[in-house]
Amino acid sequence: MMSKGIELMFAGMGIVFLFLAMLVVAINVMSSLVQRLFPDMPTSSSLPAVSSGIDKNIIAAISAALHQHRQKHKQN
To answer: 9 in a domain, yes or no?
Structure first.
């Protein structure tokens, strides 16, 4: 009875190991396929620049709200 349990344990561990090995192979194959079919995107220099013209009043309001929230929910 004990030997049958050990055989079952090794069979289960073998099946899990084979499944994980096949999963790694499948992920690597899909990764190489995607890289081959969809090459890298163009560099960021060709993308339009995003303006960082955020109003200073908005930044001050957000900072004040964060400060107030942190003071209100301070851990003791």
So the answer is: yes
Residue 18 inside a domain? The answer is: yes
* Domain-located, residue 54: no
User: How far does the chain reach from its first CA to its final CA, in angstroms?
Assistant: 59
Task: State the virtual CA torsion across 16, 19, 20, 21 in degrees, nearest 10.
Answer: 120
Domain around 28: 1-38
Whole-structure pTM value: 0.48
Sign of the CA dihedral running 19, 20, 23, 28: negative
What gap in Å lies between CA 49 and CA 31, rounded to an integer? 30
The count of structural domains within the chain is 1
The predicted structure's pLDDT at residue 48: 56
Residue type present at position 40: D
